[in-house]
Amino acid sequence: MSNMKRFLSLGLSLAMVLTGGTMAFANEMDETDVETISAPIEEQEFEYIRFEGVVEEIDETEDSYRILVKKDTDEGLDALYAYITEDMLLLSEKNMDAAAKEDIEVGMDISVIYHKTTVMALSYPPLLGPDVVVLHDGAEHSTYVEYFDDELLSADGSLRLNLADETEIVDFNGNALAKEDVYGRDLVIFYSIVMTSHPGQTTPHKIIVMPEREEEAPDAAIILTEEVITIDEGVSMIPLRMVAEALGFEVTWNAEDKSIEVVRGPNWSKLTIDRNVYNFAKMLVKLESAPVLIDGSTYVPMSFAEQVLQANVEISEIGSVIITE
Question: Does the model's pTM come out above 0.70?
Fold first, then answer.
């Protein structure tokens, strides 16, 4: 799995995204094909978030491949960038099988599906590495991605799976699996009909069992992409307020002497625009470059996050700067 998959996202980013997908329902079904069960009383939540939209742009470089997906909405998130990588599933709804990057076209309807803990870069549109991308390429099938428990009930309690002998079950790499391998796992299901019981029930045509997620991961504070700038000296600079506040610091700007104070509990630092001297822990620290003011925002060297804010800094496989406590 990529570096990005090892971190947890900011709740604020996820709160903006609408969940769920479109299901086809049937009012009548042979009673021998289904088993009616009672719905759970407690309210449950989706494990996976689904963003449905249209491919507006394809951006391919030597090192990365990403798509811009937009949807027409006045509420919540209306656009995002999704990186297409080898450690995610790119699927054709029509073929119920893997698709290639070359199959993605501008104007195509698409679903970007990612776990609720996925890191999302705080830019606009935000950037993320999804778990599954589904091409809606003219099929009669629908897709659904979710965690299913030991009774094959989805995490939110809305859908139960009934396995048939003809249901195809494979792993991430397309290798055949047995029915017992789907219990208590994250699944991609291809289906046509959902019975209008409560919860809804369906017999999938195909199931892809996703790799098990790491149970523990460090909390991610922020991911920076386009926000990182390089000044003439070749120093990478990051936006101070965005990073510091994401780490829980209070940032105060003093216009009179163009200084900034950064405080979190006993941790205090002060810096001044164009002066390469940083007050930290009763010491004076010099970094690669002085703070600069660009378009009303203060930028500091990337090393400021490590040496002054005492955070961890990593560069992901796709070049994003990941800053964590």
Answer: no
- C-alpha distances in Å from residue 177, one per residue of 93, 95, 158, 170, 207: 20, 19, 25, 5, 10
- Neighbour-count burial for 143-177, b at 16+ CB within 10 Å, e otherwise: bbbbbbeeebbbbbbbbbbeeeeebebbeeeeeee
Domain 3-209: which topology? OB fold (Dihydrolipoamide Acetyltransferase, E2P) (2.40.50)
Note down pLDDT in tens along the chain; length 325 residues: 443 333 333 333 333 333 344 444 444 334 334 333 333 334 457 899 999 999 999 999 877 899 999 999 887 789 999 989 888 999 999 999 999 999 999 999 999 999 887 766 656 787 788 999 999 998 888 999 999 999 999 998 999 999 999 999 999 999 999 999 999 999 999 999 999 888 999 999 999 999 987 655 455 568 887 788 988 878 889 999 989 988 889 999 999 999 999 998 878 899 999 999 888 766 778 899 999 999 899 999 999 998 888 888 887 766 778 888 7
The class (CATH top level) of 220-324 is: alpha beta
Alpha-carbon torsion 229, 119, 109, 66, what sign? positive
Provide the residue ranges of all domains of the chain, joining segments of one domain with +: 3-209, 220-324
